[in-house]
Amino acid sequence: MKPVVSFCLSLSAAFGALYAAVSAAAPSVPAGSIASAARPASSVALGPTSASASNAAIAGLAAANAANGTHAANAATASANASAADTANATASAASSTTHLSFAALGAYQPLNLRGLDDARTVNVGVRLDRLVTAARLRLRYTYSPALVFPLSHLKVSINNEVVATVPFDREHAGQIVTQEIPLDPRFLTDYNQLDLRLIAHYTLDHCEDPENSALWADVSPTSELILDSAPIRLPNDLALLPAPFFDRRDVSRLTLPFVLPASADNATLRSAGVLASWFGAQADYRQARFPSLSALPSDAHAVVVARSAQLPAGLKLPTVNGPMLLVADNPVAPGKKLLIVTGRTAQEVDEASAALVLGKTAMAGPAVRIGQIDIGAPRKPYDAPRWVPVDRPVAFKELIDTPNQLQVQGSAPDAIRLNLRVPADLFSWNGAGVPLNLKYRYTAPTMQNNSALAVQINDQLVKSYRLAPASADDAQGRLQLPVLSNGGNRSSSALDIPAFRVGSSNQLQLRFNLDSQKTGLCQSVASNPVQAAVDPDSTIDFSGFVHYAQMPNLAYFANSGFPFTRYADLSQTAVVIPEHPAPQEIESMLTMLGHMGQWTGYPALRVQIARPPELALLTGKDLLVIGGSGSAPLLARWRDALPLSIGAASNEGASDGPITRASFSVKEQWRNGAHLPDGSARIDRDGALAALMGFELPGSKGRSVVVLTATDQQQLSHLLDMLEKPDRVAQVQGDVALLRGGEVDSMRVGDAYLVGYVPWYAQLWSRAIQHPVLLGVLGALAGLLLAIGAFTALQELAARRRGV
Known about the structure:
Cell_synth_B; 6 domains; c-di-GMP; alpha+beta; 7-stranded mixed beta sheet; membrane; disordered N terminus; Chitobiase, domain 2; Cyclic di-GMP-binding protein
């Protein structure tokens, strides 16, 4: 019996000593997080399952120690304690960070309006694959009704359907903005999470509450935030994880991904980097992306290295490069960071490696792959960008969503059903027709006519509102048929035209149901189950009746959708022109703009061309995107007569306190050098920073466009890129010149307009005719008179033949 008791005491002592040591070594790390932070490099598992693995490992160690006797157990436990302390200290000091995620950044741009007895809203939260959450808290900012019964009313907080907290309401703070910090157990957080806020509200102790009573409300501010403390996780070098960790779709912040390029990189290398930047831009989508250009490995970030094998940075330990290769390796100057290396022996092989990455990512695995053969396929057709709505046929709603649940709502006043519609910027309605929308929908029908309605909106502008019909007598027959086999039930359809002038290149169709209460009097019974509504996935919207026709230059088209370059999704008719010796800011601008192209089209720029000023004569049949960070750049000199604006070189003429920047432009006439300027023009000498976006027709090439990003110096190009990421600033970009000064945008039309696209002859004739309504009326009257005369003459001849005359 004594050996058994001694064994149990030894086992208990080992457990207690090891638990106390681990707890003391890492007091701020929650249970279950120690094993996750110190897991082997080959493991990528996240979540609470790490806790069980950690506990099993500790129990196994303690049992082994106990089996070897008490003294052996004590020695082994002391050694384990020291090792655990060292590991915990190393983990705590290794790149731990705190992230603040506001509800607005997570997609809840407007306040979360909770209404009724029981209402809920959801906010989606992601955790990066290479981070482990060690602590979390919710900083909730909210306001609630002062008319509630406070002992019964509260806010329920859930993560992934697990209730983690309840927030009681009190009379003292009613009607005020309340800020409350709620600690959260990090073990509830996985890679993708749903944070649910549910209002449980009562305004009376009577048994017959009205769920639509105006006293039942609470609003949660979009400035509420989730605060996550996280530690890094060492990921394996595995191409199967791409695009992570270089881009992680769980991360809602802007993507900033450095590109490491050789000094004086040639056009082929820059083109390969541009293809990769466009692909990463497509992945980042709404988050936006920036791609700084570096000549050395970064010391604090993941990075993409694009170079021939002979030009790779020193210090990289790589296998022999014997063809086009893709590799993921540790960054030797940044612990915990990775490098995506795109390389080959020649520029052609580097290009093949970049194309293989953007086209064949799903077939890759392991730390390195060699590309055997790559075919980028046939060139894209005009207007077939994957992220654009097809404009050659009616498009069903099921093609615009990920899951059918996106077309279903419940509750009396649910959030709108939203469908994003990206279309080419040059769609033109020559006859004034709108966009046909064939809408099919179902809803819980009210028992009697009330204010239930469906509002159809485009870009927050009302198109039409429909009153929802009440239930019919046939609904109570106790007979059910599948909707696919029956036309009965409360299924309705409506056809309408969305005004064409309401539609831009990036649109959102909003379908907002308002299902009014069916309660007709005090203490009348109300159904306990929520009312529901759904839009049929077979509903359609049709852009096929439009032609492609636009007046250019129009920088709004470029700033919102990259038109005209994105007309071909692979940029097969686009050339990017950069200075002979580009500065890092100019290369960053080139890569970032190609990232924008990928964001707008959803497709990599596989056929884009990179050129320098001496090569302009070789660019035929191309639209040009010109990037130059200095107003005196020689690449603009050949277009002096076409430029709507000239930013001159800095000089010290007439100034004693600093250099002067010269900007000259004219209204409806082109600027010229010399003392005499044409009427309606101006020359401005200023010493402030200036950045400009310009558009004009390429001289000597009818219908070909040039868009220029330029500035007084290279540093100002970054401000131009910042402007293109802000929707409120982008909305101010118009005409053919947009000046950025101190964060403000001034747009104007200076140069001559030109037309792109095609309008059928009959459409051109009709468009010209409707501009002269009086003449059109006279011609209509004459045509009617001639028709009447012809009909009268024909009837007279017919009558004469009948009389035999």
